[in-house]
Structures are given as C-alpha cells and as structure tokens.
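Good morning C.,

I know you're traveling, so I'll keep this short. The sequence:
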Amino acid sequence: MKLRSCIAIAFALLASAGLRAAEIVKVAVRPGVTESYLLMVDPSAPPKAVALMFTGGEGRVKLPDDISELRFGRRANFLVRARGLFRDPELAVAIVDVPSDRRSGMDDRFRASGTHADDIRVVIADLRQRLPNAKVFLVGTSRGTVSAAYVGRTTGDSVAGVVLTSTLFDGGNMGIGLRDFDFKSIRGRLLFVHHQNDACKWTPHSEALRQARKGYTLITIIGGKPAETGPCDPLSAHGYFGKEEVTVNAIKNWMFGRPYPQTAE
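The tokens, ready to paste straight into the viewer:
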C-alpha cells in the first residue's frame, strides 16, 4: 500500500473517532463539576499510547473553552513547554487542568485525595473512548508528581505506567511530599526522571538516587542552559531547561520499551 493511502486511512480513522490534532476536552466528573484537558494527537496515525500530564505548582493550566484562544508563555511548566516534543505518531498528549471547583489551584492534599483520583478516572475513561488502542501513562512534574503517584496507586491496571519528573520528595510545611510514599503500591511500571543539578530544595536529586538504590528505574539528566528563573521554576535544571528534547526522548523510549540511557546529556 502506498504511503499516501496509509496516511489517508489514518486520517479517516481519526476523523471517525471524532479526533482533531488539538482540542480542549471538557468532561463532567462530579455533580456540577467539570474537568478540562488539552488533547493533542498526531493526525498521521492512531497513537499507541497517551501521556496524561499533571503540571507542577497549583496545577492551573488555564485552558480556554476555545482552542483558538490557547496561549502558553515561554516560561511555562516543563510538560507544557515540551508538549510538542512528546506528541508524535505513537504518542498522544493530554494535559489536565484543575477541576472547575478548584479554580484557585490544587494543594497537595487534594492531589492525594480520592476525589482527585475519581476525577482522573473519568478523564481516563474519556481518553479510552477516544483512543481505544492507546495505553495510558501518567506523567507528573514537580508538585504534579503528587497527583501522578497517588492517582497511579488507585487506578491499578488501567494505567500502563507512571513517570515522575523532578519528583516532589519534600512537600514543606503545607505540602505532602513523596519521600515516604509506598511506590510499590503503583501496579504499573514506574520511572523517575531527575536532573543531576536540580537545585530546588523540595526536589533533591539525592533522593531520586536513593529510590534508584531501592531498585526503581531512574534516568538522570545532565547539562542544559544556564538558569533564567529560580531553582524551583521552569527555566532551570528543575525544568530541564535546554535539555527538553533529550529528556522527552528518554521518557518516550522507556514508555515504548526501547533502549534508554541511565544518564542523558
């Protein structure tokens, strides 16, 4: 079959599923509460997997109702900034926003709650309807790793794996860090990704190394550009500044069972 015919068939399959290359999806998760997420699908082929992403900070992505009004700044969260690098013919991207009753943002207690997990189950079910052949991976960065870990613990076999980047091991006085989290409770595959020079005091690389010594998989990122923001902000080693493509490629190789480096420069 000619390449042009294959592409045409792929487009037809996506169209029949009601999919567009990028769209804002809004689903009802609780009475009177909705959850929005940005879905990005490469239109050249049905994806084999989807990365459901949880951003750091308070988790506010500020998704508009209309995709034409979507704007992200240069200093956006690592996962938002690298969304185009993640998306390819094999991998779709879904970036989840805060629920409509949490417009001011999600604290760690909500991220670790059963309510949050139940909300994300609805999102996962929606993704499965849209992308029935795609495995679901949860990907969190910084404070978003609290969401990815706790949701990953409760979703069982419905999630193929969990990726924790710049893991929030120490939540501070008001947060819930993952230093004492039982990572064995996550039934899917688990990957830690951390920059060697992450200077954020809540996300020390030394703790990621401690998890690796326990037998968990760790990819350490080395190098990048000089920081242009604070140590816990996106344009620094904490956000893989200057090493976005290297970091994303390593994660995708792990997801799809391809060779990946233990350290990536």
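Safe travels,
E.
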